[in-house]
Amino acid sequence: MFLPTSVTSCRLRPWTPADKPDLVRHANNRHVWRNLTDSFPHPYTEADADDWIAIACKPGRDLHLAVEFAGQVAGGIGAIAGHGLACQTCQFGYWLGEAHWGRGLATAAVQAFVRHVEARRLFARLEARVFEWNPASMRVLEKAGFVREGLMRQSVTKDGQLIDSVMYACIVARTA
Ligand SMILES: CC(C)(COP(=O)(O)OP(=O)(O)OC[C@H]1O[C@@H](n2cnc3c(N)ncnc32)[C@H](O)[C@@H]1OP(=O)(O)O)[C@@H](O)C(=O)NCCC(=O)NCCS
User: Fold this and answer.
1) Buried-most residue among 25, 28, 88, 92 (CB within 10 A)?
2) Is the peptide bond before 59 cis (omega within 30 degrees of 0)?
3) Does residue 176 form part of some domain?
């Protein structure tokens, strides 16, 4: 599966074991870790990369893809499926290596991912929770059509600080 984005040379595709060196190089960065949940390790080791690639390749409703730029992994994007009442909702997230920031790659990747979810009718709702200190990610989501639904006050403890987070969501075509 290769999903083209609007940025030339950028694709979303499944992770493979050969991605390990690029994954460790980009993921082992405090500036990346600081904006993600604590399931994203820091420091990010080769063993963490092995674990991640195994998880990402498991069949199931979760969908985890590599963001490839110019033939190399630049980051990751994915959705964790909800259960029960939230079975049509997914927790959506993404990150890029710092070397790739600021050229529209995340926006293109998010747009391509949403198009894929919509085309395959995978979920009705994608939710993304953004930390208060991350306006770039809020902008990415807004450019990709997500709606800011609300401020969740003092909802996150990250990097030793208790902070607000902002709930963004995108409603896509309903599944049967
Ligand atoms: C957030 C992240 C994905 C953005 O990636 P990116 O490829 O640089 O994003 P894009 O270039 O597509 O868009 C960034 C937008 O934010 C804007 N932006 C950047 N810094 C900003 C700031 N401090 N305040 C406001 N807007 C800002 C840019 O100007 C751009 O908007 P524009 O196109 O209207 O000018 C990337 O920085 C990253 O991976 N960060 C670490 C992990 C992370 O935050 N993941 C998301 C968790 S919710």
Assistant:
1) 92
2) no
3) no
Is the minimum distance from the CB of 104 to ligand 1 under 6 angstroms? yes
What is the domain range of residue 78? Answer: 3-171
pLDDT in tens, 76-121: 999 999 999 999 999 999 999 999 999 999 999 999 999 999 999 9
CB 145 near ligand 1, within 6 Å: no
pLDDT tens track for 51-82: 999 999 999 999 999 999 999 999 999 999 99
Q: 99: Cβ below 6 Å to ligand 1?
A: no
CA of 135 to the centre of ligand 1 (A): 7
Buried (b) or exposed (e) across 58-81, using 16+ Cβ within 10 A?
A: eeeeebbbbbbbeeebbbbbbbbb
101 lines ligand 1 (CB under 6 A): yes
The total domain count for the chain is 1
CA of 38 to the centre of ligand 1 (A): 20
